[in-house]
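Progress report, Aim 2. The chain analyzed during this reporting quarter is listed below.
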Amino acid sequence: MTLLEPLFAGLGQLRAHKLRSLLTLLGIVIGVAAIIAVVSLGEGLRREVISQFIFSGGAGMIEVEPPRQWVRKDGRWVRRPWEEYLTEADMAAMQREIDGLHALVPQIHGSAALQRGKTTVDASYTGTSAAFNEGFNWPVLGGRPLNADDLRLARKVCLLGDDVYGNLFQGANPLGKEILLNGDRYVVVGVLDERVRFGRSDGDIVLVPYTTAQKRLRGEDHFSEFTLFVEDLDAVERVVAAVRRVLRRHHEHGDEFRIETSQGEIDDANEFFRVLQQVGGGIAGISLSVGVIGIMNILLVSVAERTRE
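Predicted structure tokens for the chain:
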């Protein structure tokens, strides 16, 4: 017997049992394809999520929020006996004392009922500063961003997200036009560029000066959150520590303020997709195992046939 005889014999069996051979091959192909598809899909989703984080301000983004007023205790939600908020004094101290900040963006969030003529739109407003567009890498499509005079004079001016602009103006020039925001007149000075994150548009937003939001929309002088941007990623931990020192000095419960970094969110996303890939790969591996069992079954049948011969 030569070395080629088993090869020719195997090929002969494949030709003799075409359907059996096709089904066996199909089982292996489906199993391998399932593993490749699951792993590739998981990696693609991971890269997309991380790119959205980076696009929204980079890996050097730090979010600072006041303590939650409601906490879970003994299995039920209870209100804290104290309240702490982010203030302008906090912002000034951080800008003055922390080196390496690319931008510090204060924010006040709330809901907005917008009206132009007979058209009404529900949206959300953000009271912020001139650093918003640069910090969040969100350019102005038309008009201008907020400026220092808007903040100093608490002007009733606004920038519209692209969805709000489309609903209120239907393509007409909005610059210099007035709209009603929660029943008060505001002048449109700019339109934000389109932005889509995680498959959802961020265009249902209106930007106003934070001083205007404090005086006319909220009636309170504190902020919903600060977002800090650091260009040097190696400096993120140092900046976080400096932020914590400022909060401890200015607030009795400074340690209760929440500080999150985009790098931490990226790490959480990486861990989530790693587990997802492992679970998906395991499920896809079952398909491959079924194909292997099918091959073993065919081999046993072939051996049984040869034994009878």
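The two ends are 18 Å apart (CA to CA). The longest strand covers residues 101-116. These observations will guide the mutagenesis work planned for the next reporting period.
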